[in-house]
């Protein structure tokens, strides 16, 4: 199969102009998502970004575990930020909603997903995954990653990459459920490390816990000798995120 460059070059001018106009206006839509997100989330610190499968049913042990962790975090003074959808995201928002601190949902518009859950003190809607990702990272004091699928793995890899490369400050990255995550961590250790695609020290960026209180304690331990607010140097890093 080949691409006919001549056919592409001779597209009707009106069609090209229409496409360019749509793309140009899309830039303003993206800007609006960033502006609204920055304004709405400016005062939620300290916060914890929470991830996990949208497919987890309400009667599953992972749902109950996520809800308990989120409630403990909320009662400890952390805003809880999730993707705003069903499953683990709903459990996180529900736990935070029942606690003392704000429950935030960063909802994404998807053609095959149901709407946002009802446990959100602050609810934002995004069309673009990349704008939503920035909001998860920018204000986070920690990442809590429950069992999940491709979306969860995407967010997990995103924060690992940003911390590893120094594009954001180092924060606790906590995987919940050692049995679920062990295979992936073994692959990191025995494949990525042994082939030299990551350093063995990169494994120290990740913690694994099974108990709700251990998750909260691990976050507080990270900040024991410093405040939750980013330092001036870290603020500069976050501005370049």
Written account of the structure:
- The protein is an alpha/beta fold and 241 residues long.
- It has one domain (41-239): Rossmann fold, CATH 3.40.50.
- It has nine helices and seven strands.
- Strands 4-3-2-1-5-6-7 form a seven-stranded parallel β-sheet, with helices on both faces.
- The two termini are 40 Å apart.
N- to C-terminal distance: 40 Å
Structural class: alpha/beta
Q: What percent strand?
A: 5-15%
Tell me the total number of β-strands.
7
What is the average per-residue confidence, as pLDDT, rounded to a whole number?
91
What's the main sheet like?
Answer: 7 strands, parallel
CATH class: Alpha Beta
CATH topology: Rossmann fold
The structural domain count equals 1
Q: What's the number of helices?
A: 9
What is the fold's blueprint, element by element?
Blueprint: H1 5-9, H2 13-40, E1 47-51, H3 61-75, E2 79-82, H4 88-97, E3 103-108, E4 122-126, H5 129-138, E5 140-145, H6 150-164, E6 173-176, H7 178-195, E7 206-209, H8 212-222, H9 232-239
Parallel strand pairs: 1-2, 1-5, 2-3, 3-4, 5-6, 6-7
Characteristics:
241 residues; Rossmann fold; alpha/beta; seven-stranded parallel beta sheet
Gist of the model:
The protein is of the alpha/beta class and 241 residues long. Helices cover 50% and strands 14% of the residues.
